[in-house]
Specification:
The structure holds two protein chains of two kinds. Chain A is about 80% helix and about 0% strand. Chain A is mainly alpha-helical. Chain B is an alpha/beta fold. Chain B has one domain (about 10-125): Rossmann fold (3-Layer(aba) Sandwich), CATH 3.40.50.2300. Chain B is about 45% helix and about 15% strand. Chain B has helices at about 15-25, 40-50, 65-75, 90-100, 115-130, and strands spanning about 10, 35, 55, 85, 105-110. Chain B has a five-stranded parallel β-sheet with strand order 2-1-3-4-5, sandwiched between helices. The relative contact order of chain B is 0.16. The chains are: A mainly alpha, B alpha/beta. Chains A and B meet through helix 2, helix 3, helix 4 and helix 6 of A and helix 1, helix 4, strand 5 and helix 5 of B.
């Protein structure tokens, strides 16, 4: 390769690296702007990751408060269930002409209470999203930190081709599968 | 003892997830539930007290769920305990790794009470069939 060609390659690689660095920097700033506890002065991803831990900590505190309320609601629903059952036991004491209406009211109360409890249980599932968000954010930060390290290594050592290729694929692709696919896989492997 | 009185250990580093799983387990009829915040603490508890079932996360500090699973399967006293992996890790390679390590079933977060019950029932059914 002639010097002219080599210089052209170097310029291209330098431009690629610069683009990558800007991309990573913008990504980092984008993540930082999500929450004020992440300081804009943060220079390095590891630092941002530490700040991210405080964000997930805040999320956990908030989720714990919600769960406490939900547990209270479930406790109330259980108590209401016992009261409804007790009320229903008075059925025999109700005059015959009003008994049908009494039974209908008990059934309606029971259905309302069961529906409320089921909805509360669904809320537990939705609250669990906070945990997933925290874990996924952490993975994004780890991946970006890997990219940053690779770019730094490239810039320092000029081990262009291999390094640049790795930097471009800093976020590794994995074959993510659905719960159905997991069940199928388990069926094959475990015979379930 | 694999029935509604079985003693279950829920292992997850997020206290909220432990509470969520505990509440869901209670709702589907399992009231005897204890918690551990990582694999290492779970292993300590398992060696101290008998448990009938383990529900564990994958990503945890100190000892991840997959290592806990391997430790359980290595220990003659613990190896028969059914382990359900409850995790955000839904990559095929994770599932394969867990199966190879001896997991009894695998469920991806977030999940519903019904989904959790189905997997626990499946495990119990299979363990009973082998007894």
């Amino acid at each position: 390769m002639s010097d002219k060609d080599w210089n052209a390659v170097l310029t291209r690689i330098r431009n690629e690296l610069s683009d990558l660095a800007h991309y990573v920097d913008n990504a980092r700033k984008g993540i930082e702007s999500l929450e004020t506890t992440v300081k804009l002065s943060t220079e390095k991803f590891p630092e941002a990751s530490r700040n991210l831990s405080s964000i997930t900590g805040d999320l956990e505190t908030a989720a714990n408060s919600i769960i406490t309320i939900l547990e209270g609601m479930i406790g109330d629903a259980d108590k209401a269930q016992r009261l409804i059952s007790e009320l229903a036991s008075y059925n025999a004491a109700i005059p015959g002409d009003r008994r049908a209406r009494f039974d209908a009211l008990i059934k309606e109360l029971d259905a309302l209470n069961s529906g409320g409890k089921a909805a509360t249980m669904d809320m537990f599932t939705f609250v669990s999203f906070h945990d997933l968000s925290g874990q996924k954010l952490k993975k994004v930060m780890d991946s970006l930190a890997t990219v940053e390290t690779k770019i730094a290594e490239l810039a320092q050592g000029f081990g262009f081709d291999e390094g640049a290729a790795q930097a471009k694929t800093g976020v590794h692709e994995h074959s993510k599968v659905s719960q159905d696919a997991i069940d199928m896989l388990l069926k094959q492997k475990l015979g379930q | 003892m694999l029935d509604n009185n079985m003693k279950i250990l829920v292992v997850d580093d997020f206290s909220t997830m432990r509470r969520i799983i505990k509440n869901i387990l209670r709702e589907i009829g399992y009231h005897n539930v204890e918690e551990a915040e990582d694999g290492a603490k779970a292993l300590e508890k398992l060696k101290l007290t008998p448990f009938d079932f383990v529900v564990t996360d994958w990503n945890m500090p100190n000892m991840p769920g997959i290592e806990l699973l391997k430790e359980i399967r290595k220990d003659p006293e613990l190896k028969a305990i059914p382990v359900l992996m409850v995790t955000a890790e839904s990559q095929k390679e994770n599932v394969v790794q867990a199966v190879e390590a001896g997991v009894n079933n695998y469920i991806v977060k977030p999940f519903t009470a019904t989904a959790l019950k189905e997997r626990i029932d499946l495990i119990i059914e299979k363990v009973r069939a082998h007894e």
